[in-house]
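Ex. 9. Protein: Acetoin utilization protein AcuC.
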Amino acid sequence: MSKQSLLIYSPEFHTYQFGPEHPFHPLRLDVTVDLIRQMGIVTPDQIVLPEMCSRHDLLPVHAEGFIDAIEQASRLKAPTSLLKTYGLDTDDTPPFPGMDEATRLVVGATMQGAKLIMEGKADHVFQIAGGLHHAHRNRASGFCVFNDAAVAITYLQRKYGIRVLYIDTDAHHGDGVQSIFYDDPMVLTISIHETGRYLFPGTGNAEERGRFDGYGFSINVPLEPYTEDDSFIDLYERSVEPLVKAFQPDFIITQNGCDAHYLDPLTHLALTTRTYEAIPRLAHRLAHSYCQGRWLALGGGGYDHWRVVPRAWTLLWAEMNDQAVPDEIPSSWLQRWQTLSPVSLPTRMRDGDGEFPPIPRRAIIEDKNRVTLQRVMRDAVELIESRSGI
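Predicted structure tokens for Acetoin utilization protein AcuC:
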């Protein structure tokens, strides 16, 4: 199906780092790219070095005062009052030397992915360091400084005037992207996440649907804690496909956080690798059905760096390339990383049936999720169709 898929990666992504003990650690990128290489599903000419964006590229999305504050924080010269104003006074998103350049590298790489696709140099691009979906117009939040997805979407709108679909399957609600486009009918945001009743950022209710001209173009499917594969995949497929058909996008961006996995230490969902094969499979098909193949995949959350992130994102990359992935993980990868890993590395790409303990109250959880989907979808398709002007 694909003429070319590209992977944007460089060890320079390590500059985006809040500290050695912070959960959002760039080592996971290296471990993942090495697994992709060891599996033999990438060629050297498919790996593209990232390009840094300019301050000017940020201005259509981020407030100038916020950009100034990041520049000061990057030199560790920002006063406490300024840090507090712009969300940089927390353990989640503290300032670090070179923060401005590191973040602009991530944003630039996401813009670069969009350009490569629109210029016909690739059908699909995986920007592995992207997906900083909690950043707001004037505030850093939740490990995210500048919002790379929002900057890329705005670039696509301004240069090409196209309709952009943004699908976010991170366990955490994609609040920053939603808020930036909350009144924009040219961007459809779909976020499927753990309910904010128990998890940061506490938003993403089914009733959050957009405002003004953008009413109906924000879709949220909040899931019950301990949701498993069957329920997630069911809700994902039953919601996304009809919404995409109604919206008729020209370009798809997916945020592929894999922190909803059973082993992730920061969330309460219970997915396995089966879901992380199903998510890109549908996105891939929809990209070719509606968008001439235009699909930009971003990374995102994922805090089990050793057992989950490498496998989930390798499966994503394989789908982007129509590649079948053997189940056995290469011994060369295991030997390289086991000495650094604090846990035993998996020897199989896919979780086995019955590998994790059964979840109590499964039927109740699935039923609550079905009720949520009914509430979300009750008039969502009709609303999008009536307001899209297609």
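Check your answer against this statement. The chain has a mean pLDDT of 97.
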